[in-house]
């Protein structure tokens, strides 16, 4: 979700940066096919004090799209996330880019998610259909409330659209658009 949102905002003309903060299990670099000339110095280098801001923000092949990747996975990044450099990085990114999109670990797995949320202006909570329990959603909302992070919205993903309810709902619209655009405009010779 974070990658799609970042890409959509960047392609719409808004300078946007994607910050990979899943320091334990990041797959972002591989998923995006991110490559750089030489060694990638990412967020982990910056938080450890081994690199500076300009060394960890990379331009991508997406117009207006930049990324702060993770170079090496860490077993216990909580101390680094609590370091003042993390807040400084986010403040600087907010000055330089219209949107700062953060990809973080799930709120339920480790304390990192809530810690990261405490540094953000708001959170978009992604819930997996059929997998995430209501109890877990409730706990996640409580965690966000405890760290005083505003909920911007929720996304329900991986919804099975073959169920009757969704077929009935989308079937109506699919038929409507098919009839309207396939029938009426085709009769007029328009595409």
Structure write-up:
The protein is of the alpha/beta class and 191 residues long. The chain has nine helices and six strands, in the order H-E-H-H-H-E-E-H-H-E-H-E-H-E-H. The protein has helices at 2-11, 28-32, 43-47, 53-56, 78-82, 84-96, 112-117, 134-146, 164-187; strands spanning 16-20, 58-59, 65-68, 99-103, 122-128, 150-157. The strands form two sheets. It has a four-stranded mixed sheet with strand order 2-3-1-4, sandwiched between helices. It has a two-stranded parallel ribbon with strand order 5-6. Helix 8 links the parallel strand 5 (122-128) and strand 6. The protein is globular and about 45 Å long. The protein starts with a helix and ends with a helix. Mean pLDDT is 79; it is low at 176-191.
List strands and helices in order, with pairings.
Blueprint: H1 2-11, E1 16-20, H2 28-32, H3 43-47, H4 53-56, E2 58-59, E3 65-68, H5 78-82, H6 84-96, E4 99-103, H7 112-117, E5 122-128, H8 134-146, E6 150-157, H9 164-187
Parallel strand pairs: 1-3, 1-4, 5-6
Antiparallel strand pairs: 2-3
Tally the helices.
9
**Lateral strand order in the biggest sheet:** 2-3-1-4
Please state the average pLDDT score: 79
> Outline, from the CA principal axes?
globular
Reported for the largest beta sheet, the result is: 4 strands, mixed
Count of individual beta strands: 6
Catalogue the unreliable spans. 176-191
Q: In which range does the helix fraction lie?
A: 40-55%
Distance between the termini: 32 Å
Give the radius of gyration.
20 Å
Could you tell me the strand content as a percent range? 15-25%
The secondary structure category is alpha/beta
Give the SSE string.
Answer: HEHHHEEHHEHEHEH
């Amino acid at each position: 979700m974070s990658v799609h949102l970042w890409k959509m905002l960047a392609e719409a003309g808004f300078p946007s940066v994607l910050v990979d903060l899943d320091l334990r299990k990041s797959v972002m670099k591989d998923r995006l096919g991110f490559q750089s000339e030489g060694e990638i110095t990412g967020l982990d280098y910056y938080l450890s004090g081994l690199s500076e801001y300009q060394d960890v923000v990379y331009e991508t092949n997406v117009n207006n799209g930049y990324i702060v990747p993770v170079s090496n996975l860490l077993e216990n990044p909580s101390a680094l996330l609590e370091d003042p450099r993390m807040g400084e990085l986010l403040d600087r990114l907010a000055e330089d880019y219209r949107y700062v999109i953060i990809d973080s670990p799930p709120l339920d797995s480790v304390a990192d998610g809530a810690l990261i949320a405490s540094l953000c202006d708001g959170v978009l909570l992604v819930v997996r259909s059929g997998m995430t329990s209501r109890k877990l959603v409730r706990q996640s909302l409580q965690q966000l409330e405890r760290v005083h992070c505003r909920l911007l919205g929720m996304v329900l993903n991986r919804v099975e659209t073959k169920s009757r309810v969704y077929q009935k709902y989308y079937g109506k619209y699919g038929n409507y658009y098919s009839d309207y655009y396939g029938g009426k405009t085709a009769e007029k010779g328009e595409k």
